[in-house]
Every structure is written in C-alpha cells, then in structure tokens.
Amino acid sequence: MVRCILVCLTLLLQFSLWGQIQLKPLNTINKPGSNGRTDQFLNALNLPFWDDFSQSRNVPDSLLWESGSHVFVNNNLAIHPPSQYVATFDGTNISGNPYALNSLFNGAGDSLVTQPIDLSQIAPSKRPQVLLSFYWQLLGRGEIPELEDSLAVMFWSIDSTWILQDLHPEDETLFSLVGGLDQLNLDEDSLPSFQQIVIPVAGSEFYHPSFKVKFQSFSSLNGIYDTWNLDYIYLNENRDSNDFSHQDRTLSAPPSLLFSPYYEIPLTQYLSLPSKYIIPQYTTANNLYGLPSPLEYVHSLTNQTNGNTTSTGSVALFRLSALETGRKVEGLGMEASLINMEDDSALIESTFTYNTGDKFLYEQITTEGDTLFSNINLRANDTLRQYYQLNDHYAFDDGTADFAAGINFMTGKLAVRFVVNEPDTLTGIKINFPSVNPSSSGKGLELMVWIELSDSGVLHRQAFQIVNNDRQDYNEIIFSQSIYVRDTIYIGFKQFTEDYIGVGFDKDNALGMDAIFSNTGTEWEQNTRLQGSLMIRAVFGEVTNSILGTSENRLKAHIYPNPSDGLINISDTYDHYFLYNLSGKMIADGDFNSILDFRRYPEGLYLLNLQRGSNLITQKILIEK
C-alpha cells in the first residue's frame, strides 16, 4: 500500500499531510472567451436557451454566459455525462487558490450566470410552461462535496435581486442541491450518475427583458475541493414538466486511448511495433429521447500531415432503447497505412460521427400543424474529435491539467516510468507546473533520470528553476547529455523545499497511475491511489552528448568530504568542472583539479558537473560552515 499518496482535503491540513503526494484543485487560467468569436451580444437572448458545453473548451462560451470564468469546461471529470463536455464547479478561484484561506465557514465559490434573456414577451397564459432543466452529478472524478456544501439555482428578478429557487417542489425546506454521501446517486456499476432537475420559472417578477439564471456553489472557502458537474442546461417554453426527455442523441465520452497505455508516443517508436496499436478505439452513445432510436455511426482516422485516411464506413448496431445511456461504440485501431515512410511526424485525427438524424431544436407546433424550429442545432454533439501527435515524446497525459499532484517534503522525489518499444535516445523532458502554489515559481529543483529507482540507478542530474504554467503549457528542458535507453527509464525530479511542488495531473488516463513513483524518505513506492497521469513527458531525438543507459557503463565520481566547508577532493580525473546553483545558473567553471575550493560560496546545495571527453556526470554537493 502506498503510504505517501493521499487526496488533499484542505490547505489547513498541510502539516498533517507533510511528506505525502497531495492532489490539489486547479481552476482555468485561461481568460473568459468565446472560442475565437469576437462578436458580442448587443441585445438580450431569446428563448430557447440551451448549452451542453460540447462546443466549449476550458471556459463557458461568453456569448451564452455573462460570467463563469472560474468554472472549468472539460471532458475528463464527469462520469457518463449526457453529452460530451461538462461544466465543473469547485472550491477555488481562477488561479487555483482558495477563495478565503483563513475562513472557517462555508460561502459562495464558483458561479455561472447566463447572459440576459428576454422573457417580457411571454404571455401570462404560457408562463406555466416555461421550464429550466439541467443534469447534475455529485463527485464525478473529483472529490465529493460534504453535507454542508451545496449548489444553488437563482433567478434574476425585475427588481434586480437574485431569488433562490426550490429544486425539489415536494420538499419546501430544500432550496439547493446538497452534498454528502447520502446524496450520491450511483448507477448499476456503483459509479456516480447524472440526475436531471426541472424547475418552473414561476413568478411574474421574472418575466422582464433581462432575466438571468445563476448556478452558485457554496463550499468551505479555505481550500476544500468539492466537485459538481453540470450539463445540458435548457430553458424554454411550451414544455411539459413531466417530460424529462430530449429529442437528442449524443456521443458523450472521450475516445479510448489510441496508443495505450500512452496518450501519445514518438513516431519512430510507433513504426518499430505498429501491430501493438491495432486495438480498436471506442466511445459511448446516449439516447436522451423517450422513444427507441437507431444507432448508426462512422469512425475515421486521418493523418492531417499527409492526408492519408481510413474509415469503418457506416456501422449499424442494435437500436438504443428510450433514455438509454452508455452504449459502447467501437471503431478502428491505429493503422500503419496512415504513415508514409518519409514522414518525420504525424497528427492523427480520430472522429466518431453518430448518424442520429437530429435536427434543430423545435419550439412548438402551430395550430396548422407546422413545426417551428429554433436556431439550436442538436447535431452539435453528434461528432466527437480527438487529435494525437506522433512526434518525439511519450505522454500519458492528454495535454490538459485537471489537478495538481505533488509533495511538500524536503528532498522528496517524484518519477514517471516509460518503456520504449526499441532502444532510443532520451534528449529531454516536458513538465507542467500549474500555479496551484504561485510561490513555487522560481524555486530550484533537480531534474533526474534513473535506469532503476535506486541511488546507484541515477543516470543524469540537472538543475532547473520552476516556471509556472497554465493548464496546457509545459516547461521544455533539453538535457545537457543524451541518454541511450534500452527499455525502461524513469524521469522526474528531486525538490529542496518543504513547500508544495505540484505537477499537472490529468484524470483522463487511469492507465498512467501505475507509472507514478514517489520517495519521501529512503524507499520508493508505486502509486496505487491517484487515478490519472502526471504531466511529465519523455522526449526522444538525435544523439548529441550521449551516455549509456546501463548501470555498468556510467561515469562515477567519489567526492569527499560531502558535506564540506567548500573544500572538496575528487578521487578520479576529469577534464573540466562546472558549478551550478539550484536555480540552474552556472557560478563557476574551470580546468579540473583533484582539489576544488568553493569556500567563498554561501552555505547550501550545489550541482557539480564533471566532464571527461564527451561524457558528463553531475554530483550534488552540500556546503556547510
């Protein structure tokens, strides 16, 4: 059992979690946007209002939502959603920090507010048929809200006040969704499931030109992470409050891995063993309609680099029953015919298309029997696309951080294991450091490569200074020496602070959890608790200044005394030395001497590089006075 991997419940528990891998919440660092669109609403919206977030990425669409930049739109944190992508509410602000670190009370956290919607033209006789519906899920792949946490729905009244709405009319005392294990709705596989709520817009005070809906989470503001997932928000008239169905068929889950257990691999590694990746991809299809529906789909793989493509053609399965969700839809595996011999990289587009026959959302049927349609295209969630690079890196993660995972232990180490199909040359690392702890930016650590997780298994050390990233960016570091890898390699770092150093954590690929290792003392332990992948990528390329990735072919140096006052002896002979501080800055270099004098430098840890020919070895030295 891994003793050092726990879920972080609150920042107030940091002392009790000292030395353990902690999973911490993030929130989007992207600014509110509209997916590249620059046009803005000059007037209020009209009914119907509909958003299933399938066309948004990272943040809600600002053409539909007045505010909500703290809410994370993603396709990872929900389990079996009605359609692809959901809006996730948590307990942190836009930078991933607690709303009020020292608060001991619950308060308002994330919120999502619609653009103004004009309800002034709806006749009083039709107002009982104006309904708001949405799907919600407790927990998902995050952390369960506790009993004192809640998610509320509010309506904006004509007198410019927010009115809390009763989500369960049969219970007059309950005015919001509450957390706690008792509220956790499980499906037949004991997984958290989505439930749908329908709320009438009842009250003349809401029928004005600037009506708005607000979703507001209430949680502990000192950093406790609580997850609420929302999807398929729909407000319109001419609805029956007892009809929970929608004439919509959807694709809901991200595709399975194309290069399992990795998300992406180097092109050369794919070509060395293409038969390993012929396992078909799959996704899931849903029928939100109250009647049975046929299931016909197409899956295609296209190399966007050279135009090569392959397709299943039209595939028909047994029809979906009424309101059925989670039907498995299977497609193709990766095919070598997509790659040309002269290609040095590839961008693979995987596309599932559900041939639903969905139309525009209809509003009403006239007395003449004509159907009036809105401008909402229900085919928007019938196509699911995912892109994969075949370039120079191995990656378990999909390129977006959902959380941060790390430790707050002096000299603690994190590592990720990679296994190559054929021998290759490791040239560098990509690593995401999200700004969950802004104070970590600028701190020094030691990047490390191991052939085995032991002191004698270290192949490379290199000083590095942390630069915080947003959810989808990486620090890219080229190693000062390349490493010949025969099969297995471990890549990670050692930290020199008790402050929390968080690495981006992607919840989407649970197969990456077994590749995570930590050391907060003298022993390495394999992750068995956190389901997901660290955003640490192994980069391969051409040989530059290479060492062999075998324990018997590495340079070794005996440095003594260590610690010292700065005057050290070296037992072997080298050509040159380089001394770095932990920020990665070279502070001294020169021709080699068996006695080196660094007594003029302050106390602390330093990295000493010793060069012989084209080979380089890095040793850590500690100066104490």
Can you identify the CATH superfamily of the largest domain?
Galactose-binding domain-like
Average of pLDDT: 85
Give me the number of helical elements.
1
Share in β-strands: 35-45%
Give start-end ranges of low-pLDDT stretches.
1-18, 28-41, 550-555
CATH class of the largest domain, named Mainly Beta
**How many angstroms separate the termini?**
41 Å
Taking all Cα atoms into account, the compactness measure Rg is 28 Å
Report the helical percentage.
under 10%
Q: CATH fold name of the largest domain, please?
A: Jelly Rolls
Using the 3D structure, state the CATH architecture of the largest domain: Sandwich
The largest pleated sheet is described as:
6 strands, antiparallel
- Shape, principal axes of CA atoms: globular
Overall number of domains = 4
Structural class given helices, strands, pairing?
mainly beta
Give the tally of β-strands: 46
Provide the descriptors you would attach to this structure in a database record.
mainly beta, Jelly Rolls, Immunoglobulin-like, six-stranded antiparallel sheet, 1 helix, disordered N terminus, 625 residues, 46 strands, 4 domains, 41% strand
